[in-house]
Each structure stands twice: as structure tokens, then as C-alpha cells.
## 1
Amino acid sequence: MEARFGAFSFDDVTRELRCGGQLVHVSPKAFDLLAALLRERPGAVSKTDLHSTLWPDTFVTDGSLAVLITELRRALGDSAQRPTFIRTVNRFGYAFGHAFKHTGDIISTMVFGFGEIIRGRVPLTTLGGPIMIGYVAGVAAEQGFDQYLWLMALISINLGLLNFLPVPILDGGLLVFFTLELFKRQPPSPRAREIATYVGLVVVVTLMLFAMRNDVVRYLLPR
């Protein structure tokens, strides 16, 4: 497929994007994204279709798609506020209907990630704390307010899921106590609750300190 738009020419056979005869460099995924958009112009392409085209066998968040769109806009000299080539079409029905699906996908991915950490297949150095959250929030804010809100929603889902872990000082630990009480027909003894609370506190504080240590090594120490 060959296409022209503005001063740009596109050829997916040679995989070249040119502006006034000069080659414009974009990543392979960004090139594939541009090809998908050009094939459907002037119509719109849903995020679902773009995800299935670019990542047919892999789950990725909308943030990955936003990064590619940002790359394309920079290469084309386009703007999200005043778009010339790439325009975002917001549809409430699409957003509302897919919010539940994406939330479920995110939770499934997080649960899988926790399992991989417990199995030792993912190193603990991937954990991050408040410094990492601040850094990622800054990057998201640079990409636009919508990406910033998406990150806040992602963090909220993450924290909610963590809160349901079966650790005594978290809500998940309380659910464990209530379940035991349901089957034993009596609540755990005060001594057992006290010991479990101390153990849970040690676990949470240890994770916090380890995450902070990762943040310091990742962002503060000289390399």
C-alpha cells in the first residue's frame, strides 16, 4: 500500500515513511500503527482493533498504544491539541463498556505477576515505591492528562488488589479471620490475632523498605 498525506509519502512494501523525499525514522510498531490507520482512513479505528493488529498474542495496556501515537505525532509534527493527521475520537459507550473488560484484564495481569514473583521467575528488584510512582506519574503527565488519569486508575486498581492479599493487617487478612470464624463457629483468640497482626506488619514494612531500596538504587544513586 502506498499513500500520501500532506508532505508525507508512505510505502508499506519498502516500509518507508518520507517527508519531502527525506526518510522519517519511526519504530516498527509505530510504522504498523500508521499503516493500520491509513488503511481505514478517513474512518476511525477502535482501540480494540489496533490492539489485535499490533499485539495479536500479547496483552498490553492502552499506555503502550498511547506511546506509539505520541511517537507518530512527533514524527509527523502533529499535535494532540490541534491534530492534523491523527485525531482521537472519544466515545462514551466504548469507554464505559470496555472499562470493565480492561479492569478485569489488568487484575488478571497483576495476579499473574504476583504469582511469578512468588515463584521467583520475576526478580524482586522490579518492585517500586513512591519514588517510582512519582517518576512514572511525571512521564504520564507529559504525555497528556488522559494518560495521567489512566495511570491513577492503574495505581488505584493495584492498591485495591494489594489490600485483598491475605496479610492480617490488610482487608484480605480480615476476610481470612472472618472465614475461619465462619467454619470454626468462634473467632480466633486475641493472642492469635495479636501474633498474626505482628507478622502482617513485619511483612508489609519489609516490602515497603525493599521497594524504597529499589527506588533509591534505580533513581537516586549515581550510575
## 2
Amino acid sequence: MTHVSRKKLPKEMSDLMNEGFIASIKGLDTSGAKSFATNLLTTTELEMLSKRLFVIYILNEKYSITEISNTVNTTIQTVQRIQFQLVSVPKDEIQAMVNKVNGVIGKKKLKAAIKQVLDTEVRSQTLEPFRRNL
């Protein structure tokens, strides 16, 4: 997909476009949302938005910043920046996002996936000194 964000828009136009974007995805079912995302977003854009959502999700689950960084495979600074941005977001809005993710994927499945990534990371870090000596 062509990159279209280099030049800034006037605020009024930007607000109007953002409102149109939100209105176009509001109320889509899972299938419609998936189709919308895959047709509109590049793979990188979709992954970036997905990572951001899951950083928010995992922050809400009270994992450490390092654990979140390892789980989502992003920098600690990115996790901290998202955490800082969330300070101004009402708790009920964050909870609504978390509930939506839980409803679609399931809390047990997500916790198991997070645990698997973190366990793999711990094993990798534990074996690293031995790998260097080989």
C-alpha cells in the first residue's frame, strides 16, 4: 500500500477523515473487520496496530514492562510510551478494549500464549551463556 502520511493535513480535514474512518469500522462483525483491515492496511500497519492493542491488553493484566516488551517483541521504550499515553484514557475505555479482546480470543488462551512466550524467553536467556562458549 502506498505511504500517504508524509504531508500534514489541516486539523479540520484530519478530524473529518478520522471521524469517517472510525464510522466506517464501527459495528463491523469479526469477518467484516478482518476484511476491512486486510484490504486497507499493509501487513506492517496491521502488525503495528495489533502490537499496540496487545501492549495495552498486557499492561492491563499487570505484567512488567520487560515482560510485555519480550512478549510483543518491541522495545521497552515503546511499551513505556504506550503506558504514558494511557494515563489520559478513561479506565472504562481501556477495560472495554480488554473485554473485546477477551471475548474474541479468550482470556485463558491469551494468558497461555503470554506464558509460553515468557517461558521461552527465560529458557533462551538461561542458555545464552552456554551458547557463547560453544
## 3
Amino acid sequence: MNEKPQSRLFRRYIQSTGIPADARHVHYALVAIDEQETVMDKISSVRNPLCLHMRKLGGSREYRYKNNEFLCDGIKLLKEAVQSGAEVKAVLTASDISFPLPVETHVYRCNRSVIGSVSPLKVAPGPLFTCVMPARTITDAAEGTHILLDGLQDPGNVGTIIRTADAFAVNGVILTNGCADIYNPKAIRASMGAIFRQNIYFIDLAGLMGLKGKGFRLIGAVPGAGKRDISGVQLHNTIVAIGNEGNGLSKDILSICDEEATIPISQDCESLNAAVAAAIVMWETARQQVVVATGGCNGNS
């Protein structure tokens, strides 16, 4: 006897959640999204285990890394995640989703008040969804320019830099010395989906020395007169280090820099925001690439 699709999907869902197959308290529905059938469970209480799990993912860095999972909010981010091949585990939504989701993704229906209660954002557009953290260990960096973030503490800055790196096709964003978490909801939001596309790596000092040993030059972006203008530095096959918002580059990073360079600014201005400084460096990288591609002379030594 052939098993109905509804029964087959429900059985698969029950097996994945560990709920006894004869449990009568489980309410479910099947929704067809672009001819794809997805199991949808109904959630009405903010004390539901999934809601509690999502709230912890949004609020605790330790909990995120313990579970190797992070929380996102918004239909645009969900579409970016799916298109980028991210492993989307669960979706909590108050409305229909107009594009297909991976078959292994569990979809849960709730009302808007649940979304607002669970989301860490002040204005929660929904849907909420969780993703598995991909591997972020750098082993063999591609040629080109990489941006190193040294102890940045503002998740908004970190997310903005990831977004800008994606816009200028920077090969990778490297984080060291306890940067703000890239999976902080503010960082994810600021990245505008680039978190799913951009190469992002975590590294320690030994790993950074290993990259230098493979031919990468480390350039420290620093404020102040007397340093070489960043536009005069050849940025191909370099790692450009951007320092902490208040203290700049750490002594450890400065001690292994091959060169220090600066972005010329008004004498009346002490320094630039870290995300702005990184954006200028990445724009300069893109400019140099265009010059080389068109056969022009950059004037760099």
C-alpha cells in the first residue's frame, strides 16, 4: 500500500524531532511553496522550546558557538541564505514564504506577537530562522587582498565591513583578537546578506604569520602624518589590518606589519570610523585592480 505524501512527510518530521509517532498534541499542516511540500508546525507560546532556543541564539555568543548555530531575521536574509546554500535548520514565520526552502528545513507557523517577542531586534520584520555555522578556518588563502579586523568591538562595524568587502570583491575578511561576533544579530543585519557570500575567517597570530610565510604582505592602516599614503601602496597579495575603534591596531599586529600606511584626512580630524577606513582601503584595492586590468600605470612601486 502506497503511503500518502502527507503521511510520509509527517513521519519524517516526527522521526527528526524525536516525538512519539502517536502523539496527539502535535498539530501540523502542509504548505505547497513552488510545488515543494514543507512540514509546518504551529507554535502559539513564546515558551515553546524553539522560541527559547532562538531567543538564546540571538542573545548569547557562548550559546551560539556551543550549538554551532545562529539566528537571522527577515525575508531578504532568508532568501540570501537559501540562494547561497546555507544550511537553514528552522524557520519561524507569521506569513507564507514565496520561494522554496531546502527539504530538510523545518517551518513553524506563529503569530506576529511571537516573532516580536523572540527576535532580538527592536523592529522584527520576520521570519526568524536559524542556520548552521560554516567552517571559518583559513587554510589556503586565495591571491588578492584580504582585510584583517583587529579587535573591533562594534558588531555594526563588523557587519558593514563584511558587506563592503562583498561589494568590492575582496578575497576575504579575517578576524583576530576578540572581534565582535560576526553572528551577532546586529552584525548579520548590517551585512545585508553578505554574511552568506563573503569569505570570512578566524585566525590567531601564528596563523597570520603562516599567511605571511606564503607571500602575503601585512599592511597596518594607521592614523597620523609621516606614513605612506595608502594609494601609493601596492595592495595585491596583501592583508590590510584595521584596528580597534578606540585603540587602533594592537602591539602584536603592529610588530609583524611589513609596512604602515595611512589615509590622508583633514588635520582637524583625529581619525576615521573603522568601517569607513576599511571601505576606503577596499575601494583603493578595487581601483588598483581596474588600473591593472586596463593596462594603466598605477605609479606604485
## 4
Amino acid sequence: MRVVGIVVACAVALYLAWRLRDVLRLVVISVFLALALLPVVDAIDTRIRVPRAAIILSVYAALAAGVIVVGVIVVPGMVKEVEQVSRDAPRASRTSGLADMPGRRAPGGARSLSVRGRASGRCR
């Protein structure tokens, strides 16, 4: 009877965890972030006498500002690189010989022939 109770309790716990998975995900992320920032908050708290809530708020603000600054610096360059790759990809594939591979379309649009002489790329 005890085993049945344990199995039922586990099933109920798993069901509740599944139903609350979005909330649990946020709680887990928040706990890990708080634990990661705890040494920083403690170090600042021992050096200056400011209420702990103000220190925590300033650490979170500095973290958010860092994410924003990295986004402002990194994202525009990444967008430019992706645009350049998308512009250069057709020319690069023509000059690299990828169009001559079996199953690829030749520059004129015709299919290249495979080793056995059949047109490749068709499903049987």
C-alpha cells in the first residue's frame, strides 16, 4: 500500500510540474540568477553602507545595461554580415563548383546527371 501511495504522489507531483512548467522555468532561472549575483551583492554590501535592496537593484540595472550595450554593438554588425553572406552566396556557390555536384541544378537550370546517367534529385 505504501508503494501505491508513493507512485500516486509522484504522479500528482509530475502532473503539477507539467501544468506549472512555465512558472517553474521562470523560478529556476530567477534562483540561478540570484545565486550567481549573490557574491557580487555581498562584496558591494561589505564595502559600502547602502541598503541591500538598492545594491541588488543597481546590480540588475548594470546587468541589463550590459546586455543592451552588447546588443547595440553586436547586432548591427551581425545584420551587415548576414546581408553580405546572403548577397554573396549565389556567386560563391557558382564559383565553388557546388553546382556541378550530383543533385544540384546547373547554372542554366538543368539538372546535372549522376554517375549512373539518370537525372538526380528525383524520388522513386
